[in-house]
Amino acid sequence: MGFESLEHKLVKSDDGSFTAYSTAFDEHYHSTRDGALHESLSKHVIPAFKHHQEKDELTILDICFGLGFNTLATLYYMRKEGIKKRLRIFSPEFDKELITALPEFQYPSIFDPFLEILTSLSETGIYEDEDLYIELYIGDARVYLKECQEQFDVVYQDAFSPASNPLLWSQEYFKEIASLLKEDGILTTYSMALKTRLALYENGFKIYINKGDGHRDATLATFMELKGYTIVNMPHKIACNPDVVSLRDADHKG
Ligand SMILES: C[S@@+](CC[C@H](N)C(=O)[O-])C[C@H]1O[C@@H](n2cnc3c(N)ncnc32)[C@H](O)[C@@H]1O
User: Splitting the chain (254 residues) into consecutive groups of 10 residues, what average pLDDT does each group show?
Assistant: First the structure.
């Protein structure tokens, strides 16, 4: 059995790593321009670990697991940088068929040391060793957030785009996320959309620009001041765009 199906096509991104295209959402799993691996590291993993350098243990919410790049890139980055922390990752994903097919996906060779972990996740939804616990939730992320008992240090907000998956970017969604993020936690996302930033801002987040070489700008959100990044002046943005409104569940529920 190969990875490709009617729903998932294999696509090479510009950094040489493969990503996939979802026919259901009519969207790639990663930016093909920034590259799947590069996007994971620069938009999610590196800023999250830079923010939490001092902590011995991190609990991460990876929205949503997809091909698992953010989780795998986290493990890769920790090994490469010699970072020793206890790590717990929780990740909802409703596409069971995708999770089952993951061992067939062509991952970058730097992920080779973690393919056993991936196989365990694909087969049982769980991986555990002394310093690492990873758990997948096969189902709707919104249901998961309502049931979740964890408090997170990091949220990798990596759903399909607000246009194609609005219920994972709405004001109500970020309210649930805000209630699960620790006071010193950080949310990382590729989205630069004002509607996304507004939904975060309306839930008490400060918004920062994640600028870096070799990737398009992205967004970081925290409750506390985030050193080393430029804050987005949200009152000014709102004043300049008086018609902007955040996405709302009611406009997108069937
Ligand atoms: C952009 S991809 C995630 C990419 C992933 N972070 C990676 O590194 O490969 C979005 C994923 O969200 C999943 N998804 C979409 N809506 C969902 C929902 N309501 N609940 C759970 N998973 C969802 C899709 O099946 C898809 O795998």
Answer: 86 90 93 88 97 97 97 98 98 97 95 97 98 98 98 98 97 98 98 97 98 88 96 98 97 84
Atom of ligand 1 nearest to the CA of 67: 9
Atom 25 in ligand 1: residue holding the nearest Cα = 95
User: Which residue among 160, 176, 189 has the greatest number of ligand 1 atoms within 8 angstroms of its CB, and so is best to mutate?
Assistant: 160
Query: How close is the Cα of 64 to the center of ligand 1, in Å?
Result: 4
In the block, tokens 């529920």 appear at 253
The pTM of the full predicted model, rounded to 2 decimals, is 0.97
